[in-house]
């Protein structure tokens, strides 16, 4: 029995370079009697193909092939994790920590995965609620991070942090990154946070340019609930961003409540996948100056 039979294709929206790659995958899979569904993100790339809304695709496919960069996979992962759909990423972007199949190896890698030979990882997500005056105004999931940051003003934000309802500290900083292990190689890394193995059940709290230099990154257990409270006297315009793709403006007194999501993302890699090789290649480790 085939491990996957119905395959969805998700593309970086508006990227005309992907039309040829999508056409190749469609033909390749249909010749092998797979059912192939094309996501609405491919609008305008193959005008004669029928497109499905993301929710419909998520309910019908058991594997999604994502063409683009890590941002495209972040978007797909948030919508597909709840449905248990496995994701395979084709890297047509830049860094590619998550989408690790090169275009040159695209079709052979797909065949290998469809034959049942792959490495599967479970990647954690965060679920966030923004609460204002006892009312939840925003609910969002994140695969990489939740970032509190100032909005177009070079001034520090004042906020309090709680972990499992216990007060941790008050901070004046440009913001705070709350990240999954997957997100430890994204904004959190740029802010001085540690690289955390994706297999570790953890949540990172990494301050952005804190005023107190002893304010260091924290790593806590994944079951923890993080709450960030924007101080009532804070005068800096602030917002919270989810994977850098959705934002909510904040008012003084707003609460950002973050906890691990129960559903995990199924991320597939070719059999020769090596997390540390990816780190070496992308971060240029072990290179001689």
UniProtKB/TrEMBL annotation:
Function, as annotated: Involved in the regulation of the intracellular balance of NAD and NADP, and is a key enzyme in the biosynthesis of NADP. Catalyzes specifically the phosphorylation on 2'-hydroxyl of the adenosine moiety of NAD to yield NADP.
GO CC terms in record: cytoplasm
Binding residues for NAD(+): 70-71, 144-145, 155, 172, 174, 185-190, 245
Catalysed reaction, written as an equation: NAD(+) + ATP = ADP + NADP(+) + H(+)
Gene responsible for this protein: nadK
UniProt cofactor(s): a divalent metal cation
Localisation: Cytoplasm
Keywords per UniProt: ATP-binding, Cytoplasm, Kinase, NAD, NADP, Nucleotide-binding, Transferase
Entries under InterPro entries matching the protein: ATP-NAD_kinase_N (IPR017438), ATP-NAD_kinase_PpnK-typ_C (IPR017437), NAD/diacylglycerol_kinase_sf (IPR016064), NADK (IPR002504)
Family affiliation: Belongs to the NAD kinase family.
Protein name: NAD kinase
Record flagged with keyword NADP: yes
GO BP terms in the entry: NAD+ metabolic process; NADP+ biosynthetic process
Keyword set includes Transferase: yes
Catalytic residues identified in the record: 70
Any GO MF annotation of the entry: ATP binding
The EC number(s) this enzyme carries: 2.7.1.23
């Amino acid at each position: 029995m085939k491990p996957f039979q119905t395959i969805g294709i998700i593309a970086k929206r508006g990227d005309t370079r992907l039309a040829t790659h999508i056409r190749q995958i469609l033909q390749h899979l249909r010749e092998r009697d797979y059912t192939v569904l094309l996501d609405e993100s491919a609008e305008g790339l193959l005008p004669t193909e029928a497109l499905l809304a993301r929710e419909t695709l998520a309910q019908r496919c058991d594997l999604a092939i994502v063409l683009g960069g890590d941002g495209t996979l972040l978007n797909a992962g948030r919508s597909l994790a709840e449905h248990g759909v496995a994701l395979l990423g084709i890297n047509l972007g830049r860094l590619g920590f998550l989408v690790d199949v090169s275009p040159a190896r695209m079709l052979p890698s797909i065949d290998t995965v469809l034959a049942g030979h792959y490495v599967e990882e479970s990647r954690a997500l965060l679920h966030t609620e923004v609460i204002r005056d006892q009312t939840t105004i925003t609910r969002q999931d994140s695969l990489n991070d939740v970032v509190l940051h100032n909005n177009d003003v070079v001034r520090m934000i004042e906020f309090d942090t709680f972990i499992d309802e216990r007060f941790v500290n008050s901070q004046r900083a440009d913001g705070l990154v709350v990240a999954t292990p997957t997100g430890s190689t994204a904004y959190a890394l740029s802010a001085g946070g540690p690289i955390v193995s994706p297999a570790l059940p953890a949540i990172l709290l990494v301050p952005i340019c804190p005023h107190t230099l002893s304010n260091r990154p924290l790593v806590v257990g994944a079951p923890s609930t993080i709450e960030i409270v924007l101080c009532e006297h804070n005068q800096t315009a602030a917002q919270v961003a989810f994977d850098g793709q959705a934002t909510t403006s904040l008012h003084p007194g707003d609460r950002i409540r973050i906890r691990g999501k129960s559903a995990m993302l199924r991320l597939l890699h070719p059999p020769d996948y090596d997390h540390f090789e990816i780190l070496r290649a992308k971060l240029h480790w072990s290179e001689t100056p």
